[in-house]
Amino acid sequence: MGLIENFIDNGRIWLFKVNSEGCFGEDNCDEIQRTDVLEIEKDYQPLAVYPNPTKEMIKVTLPENNNWQRWSIYDLNGKLLKNGSINNSFDFTISGLKELGSGMYFLKVYDGQDRVGIGKFVVE
Predict the structure, then answer these.
(1) Consecutive sets of 10 residues in the chain, 124 residues long: mean pLDDT of each?
(2) Torsion of CA 83, 67, 64, 78, to 10 degrees
(3) Nearest CA to 18 among 31, 7, 29?
(4) What is the domain partition of the chain in residue ranges?
(5) Cα gap 36→46, rounded to integer Å
(6) Model confidence, pTM
(7) 116, 87 contact by CB (below 8 A)
């Protein structure tokens, strides 16, 4: 699979014929495994996540007036990587993030009444 950055060259346009699966031919098709889909709720509350970027841990300040119960961390493909429970309704800390590897991640917190808080953070 490749990336074409400049597809117009000296007035010429490059066209590529692909089949219904987006492949150039039978022998030239990468298999893509889909994990879970991370759905972003329309009515969510933003989370304060710091330090951001981080190396090992984050502290999360929660929006007020909710009974936050649990948290989950997802990668950019929507794959669930870590989760846990929330004992304090104001803030909490998540450690052991170095094991996730470098990249961007989403943190979601949930209460018992379908309210969601969402934040993003980067692990260096």
Answers:
(1) 48 66 66 59 82 96 84 93 89 95 95 86 96
(2) 30
(3) 29
(4) 44-123
(5) 22
(6) 0.66
(7) no
Query: Strand locations in 6-87, DSSP E?
Result: 8-9, 12-13, 44-46, 48-50, 58-61, 68-74, 80-85
* Amino acid identity at 108: K
Token pair of 91 as six digits: 């803030």
Instruction: Give the residue ranges of DSSP H helices in 1-119.
Output: none
- The strand pairing partners of 46, in sequence order, are 118
Task: Give the bridge partners for 85, in sequence order.
Answer: 70
For residue 121, give the H/E element and its range.
strand 116-123
Q: Which CATH class is domain 44-123?
A: mainly beta
